[in-house]
Amino acid sequence: MKNVILATAIAAFATSAANAGVDPFGLENGDFSNGSAGWDQFGGAEGPYDVGFFGGSDAVVAYGTFGGTPNYSGYTQTLGWVGSFFEGETINFGGEMFIEDGKDLFGGNNVNVQLNFWYGDGYDYGFSVVAGTLNGDSNTNEVYGFDMNYLLDEGAASATRISLDFTYVQTDIPASGGESGAAWGTNFFGGIVPAPGAMALLGLAGLAGRRRRN
Length: 214
Fold this sequence. Notes:
single chain, alpha+beta, Jelly Rolls, five-stranded antiparallel β-sheet, 3 helices, disordered C terminus
């Protein structure tokens, strides 16, 4: 009877893994090594470019525009649609950002690595979870790395779509008409952290396989 229960549990996990393969959750091309494949650009943003800030990784740059405030620019990528994430799961996400000397963020302008949760048809904005922010107080010529785990509660798990966004938020424009700042970003990542129960099932599956071979 115990063998039957174990086999059923392993089969259920295998089915879940197979379904996840059909509708995967995760970020692709986070270092822009394949150009901008997988990403959508919005607002005042450019790239990717070959820069030396991040140890060899290409990067994109987001900057303020003169289209009013608030104004948003950057790059976005869908991590997963409903059915590829569930309540109680943890999303690990983050990335790296950099501000060049002389490109300081003006006023209250800021740039973020964040998860966005969308509802309705998948494009009705709900809320954001920010892994890291740079602003006018951030040092220039310094690589900032951010890494965050976010546990999906009932509200977050009821989203239709989750995206990872590198977003420049322009809230202030210099009266002189000068630049309002810019920031580079790359080495982004985002994925589901396996639940302890799933890891335990994988361990049982491996144990059962070893016993069969013995």
